[in-house]
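Exam revision sheet. Question 4 asks you to relate a sequence to its structure. Input first:
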Amino acid sequence: MRRVSLCLLLLGSASVLAPAMAETVGKTVLPEPAPNWFISQGRDESHLWNAADGEMLGLISHTGFTTATVTLPSRKEAYLVDSYYSRAVTGTRSDVLTVLDLSTLATKAEIELPPKAAALRIRQHIALLGDERHVVVFNMTPAMSVSIVDVVDRRFVGEISTAGCAIIMPVESRGFLMLCGDGTLQLIRLDESGQEAERLRSKPFFDVEKDAVFDRVVYDGAGWILISQEGLVRQVGVDGKRIVIGDAWSMLNEEDKAAGSKTEQWRPGGEQPFTLHRGTRLLYSLMHKGKVDTPDADGTELWVFDTDRRKRVARLVLPVETKGILASQEPTPHLYLRDKDNKLHIYDGHRLRLLRTIEKPGAVGGLLQTLTPND
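Answer key, structure tokens:
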């Protein structure tokens, strides 16, 4: 007992005599963004990763109501919506579009918005238009609308009603398509100031009751790829005064259909089920065998499709059920997969070979994003 007390006394004396080490707080400055960087979003923060070595580059702080982050590497800025309440989760609400410096991940500006933004982690609830000036934010309370923000002049432009239509898919320079509940697409074009200049509507092309289209859409470089819960794939875009909707093709071949049953068949699903590598036109999809109305079921396999030939070219049984997938836009893409245990797995997108796993990525929950504006 005396020996232990003596040791404690000596340790205490040493700590008193030892000179205090001053802590210094540094400011991180990131290098030029690389195409293999990606973001995993959690509830209150997002992490920026380097796929080459699996190392975290930085942390983006935000509120739990953030939908997604829009990045613009050419301006070294990122944009996201934050919602604040005067009493944490109740009281007076205020929404802002936060402008981040991609070099430091620090806030550069806040632009006040109407307190209506949809607090759902869906990538296309916020988008930067092709003019790189106007950010469009989807609102859901008390009615569907979008807020238009000029991120060059740092000002809120106005609100546009979009009753029954959601999902923002930029086209051309100042236009965007929206997916509507009556089975149509809506096109809204803005003028140079960000005000509505034109609105068009397509004919119905799907039945929301029989085979709804996922609200997880994929940018293909000129237009967008829409996929239904039964695995029908369509490419959509704009040609002058026309909204162009391509013919549908199925993810399932005759063998896949024969392997199913009256109650279960192969279906796409997950929180983030699709991604496209635009250079090779390869579409990656998480698939599971399930009943009707299981679009949120985790993927047990990864299927790869050549969208030009409309044909499956590869198939991988996943070692663990997977919630989300995203491809980088490098010549040889990386694939980022988030599994049911929140681990991140990085694959070679051509060989479908696992390169590394991030066991504890920190952010729980999580939308995956690259630093290209529409991914």
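Marking note for examiners. The first helix runs from residue 2 to 17.
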